[in-house]
Amino acid sequence: MLDREIARSVFVTGLKNAHAMENQALSIMQPQVNRLTHYPDLSQRLQSHIAETETQISRLSQVLESLRESNSSMKDTLLSAMGSMAAMGHAVAGDEVLKNSFANLAFENFEIGAYISLITAARASGDSHAVALLEQSLDEERRMAEWVAAHIPSVTETFISLKGTGESAKV
Questions:
Q1: N or C, which end of the chain has less CB nearby within 10 Å?
Q2: Angstrom distance (rounded) from CA 37 to CA 118
Q3: 25: domain range?
Q4: InterPro entries under this entry (predicted)?
């Protein structure tokens, strides 16, 4: 049998980390969506996922508040800054849209792992209310990861086509 107090401690730490992770996701996606000109489907899906991510942050805050805890402003700020730096790093690449697609797929899968762990810790700590909220976020992350993976071929083909015409293909 798992110790509920230890499980709660792991759960709270995970919630704070996930809150920061979702802020990092926003700082990665927002610059991307603002730069996309030749990839309207990707732009639209990123805009939709930005709205989902904002809702996920709200869910995480709700769970933290129910536990009489709060997010870590320091973690939120630090990971958000790291996300902004990652976005800037790809902006100088000649194949920015491709690099962003690969990084987005990796990040979505990281988030999936984080939510699976959070759900496990919530169950171990006896917080059944949080499980339903976290499962909603997990489902959204899985759908986004599937979408990104399914669209890497079309993004790559558009990139190649634009590059062949001499247009800026990177975004």
A1: N
A2: 36
A3: 4-165
A4: DUF892_YciF-like (IPR010287), Ferritin-like (IPR012347), Ferritin-like_SF (IPR009078), YciF (IPR047114)
